[in-house]
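Schema walkthrough. Field components (list of strings):
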Amino acid sequence: MPDLDDLAASADPAAADGGVGIVVPQDFVHDKPFTFKSGQTLPGFTLRYETYGELNATRDNAILICHALSGDHHCAGRHKADDRKPGWWDNLIGPGKAVDTNRFFVICTNCLGGCSGSTGPSSLNPETGRSYGITFPFVTIHDMVRAQKLLMDHLGVLTLHAVIGGSMGGMQAMLWAILYPSFVRRLLAMATTAREGAQAIAFNEVGRQAIMQDPAWSQGNYPADGGPRVGLAIARMMAHITYLSDASMDRKFGRRKRADAANGDAYNFDIQFEVESYLRYQGQSFINRFDANSYLYITRALDQFDLAYAYGSLEAAFAPVQAETLVVGFTSDWLFPPEQNRNIALALLRAGKRACYTELATDLGHDSFLLESEDLYALVRGFLERSHETVVDFSI
Amino acid sequence: MPDLDDLAASADPAAADGGVGIVVPQDFVHDKPFTFKSGQTLPGFTLRYETYGELNATRDNAILICHALSGDHHCAGRHKADDRKPGWWDNLIGPGKAVDTNRFFVICTNCLGGCSGSTGPSSLNPETGRSYGITFPFVTIHDMVRAQKLLMDHLGVLTLHAVIGGSMGGMQAMLWAILYPSFVRRLLAMATTAREGAQAIAFNEVGRQAIMQDPAWSQGNYPADGGPRVGLAIARMMAHITYLSDASMDRKFGRRKRADAANGDAYNFDIQFEVESYLRYQGQSFINRFDANSYLYITRALDQFDLAYAYGSLEAAFAPVQAETLVVGFTSDWLFPPEQNRNIALALLRAGKRACYTELATDLGHDSFLLESEDLYALVRGFLERSHETVVDFSI
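Field assembly_structure (string):
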């Protein structure tokens, strides 16, 4: 385990800002057949991951971070000293931070089916020498979690101090506590749901249609340097709106017009409002880092995730859970609303488990779990400290 | 004015259900130059419209109905006896209904820039013999209202008993009361806004991008039988979600699966959930009745509508208003939320006008104004009856 003084004395410039410093992603290669829930198999797979901090002698200080739809394994630190941005949850994870890498061995891995180094539809199929495309096995949250477990075993982790995830990461975290009850001591799920409602499925379906109706999708068999870039950008622009909130968009953009459109009304279909410019940028930057087929697979995994359907009831699903659970909902999250988060804790409580629901008042929408919040940090810190205590808060 | 007994004795089968019966749309041809707010001109234009009931001798019993983005002039009755559906507001308009065609002369016209018979981007440009496409003048709500006024003059209407509209129709109705104060006695606006927020602009922009990035859009110069059908369907699917609510979609579809997908999980990207099937149907049926360029023009008109920006403040915008106003918001409308509706009435009140805001508790979302509601009918009926009385209800 690194010593705080060692870190403070480090010459690493990135660590000077209190972060985990320069991080080198690793690859875990599982070279045995892996059978998906669908019955399809792969001869093996790779998971790309990062770790921060060190595994202790008793191998019980590991914390697994599970990412959301468009996230990846890079959740803290920088790959290069001059990276414009650190990992996506760098505000939460690091030495002395809420998820304290001086104490914990933190692991984050790109999910199976993803496109940031882990095996997914864009990976080469060794049998054909071409990308799998949509011949890739159908992926479920269940498959993602089972693959992660193989990585934990590979790393020598004996127990997880906690599994933490927001959105799709929260789904994975719940399933971890269900599939490997004795392995998971604490479950921290945020801005998530035990099953999506019709509206969330509907938005995902529009995104999939935007991709699949793009001629460049070519039935999923597009070249690595091509593909349905237009469809993927449209899907991302739309989805991005659902991650924010009306209030946060109004505060950030309102009806502000671009400088070149500010002098009177623009009588054309070019960008006029700042929010249009922002969305187009979101769409364009996404297509440079995300694979369209992965987007199809992962949104389908989200839509099919349904604990009550899979186990008969939510209480039955949670029956084996041994983990202490904290579920955090955010008032402005309209994609996976507070009620859906609260229902998780309620079902755990009905199943006789230690569970707690807390709601944070934010106006930042679904992405609230990613944003800087001392309230959230204090909750996470306290939850990781405590041993066996249940605080129930059903305030809305 | 038709007599109730005459109507009851009519042999018209469609009238037997209490509706206005068979309706024949009319065309109003304005053959003088028309200058748009943008400064661009047309040598003339056509408005397609329908009327129900008869104009009285004093020409003061007319009610103008203004439609929303995807609506048209056909708001009551049927074109053929075996039409599957009547006009879009047939539940509200008809003999003895809330907007009583036994008493009122009701007019509804497809908006300028539309694609259901009125002059718009898909109309032939007489100078080129081809569709205008995006050479059509930029259209604003202001232009739509001015064109409607020419139709009112043509019909010999001396004063409007009321202007009624929901969503974009509400914007038109407000502008009617501002531009022609002495002409409008009552203003009834529902599920509308004096200006869209960033989120609504964002959704419109994603729809426009879906259309304009579709290769078949061809910079707006597509043939009448072609065009960006994929992009328009995507735009419609997404927009349709914003017209409903999470609760109504859950009640209508939930996570119900299609019969052919019901036996276990479907491991492919075909339709699995009922809501997916419904949305695809919505997209496909829309492309058969709507022009993609009209969609661009009209959404842009929606985004640019901003009374406070145009007049300095909302109170200044409403300064000339003489109409009695009723604004109706719907609790589940997240596209043009209750607060935006209430703000209209508040500004009118601050400007010293007779205005009233009422909120109806529905879970049907933005489209609540279109749905069957005895509460709404009673409000409309009462509002059309009263002369000069103000009831203010700011309850939420």
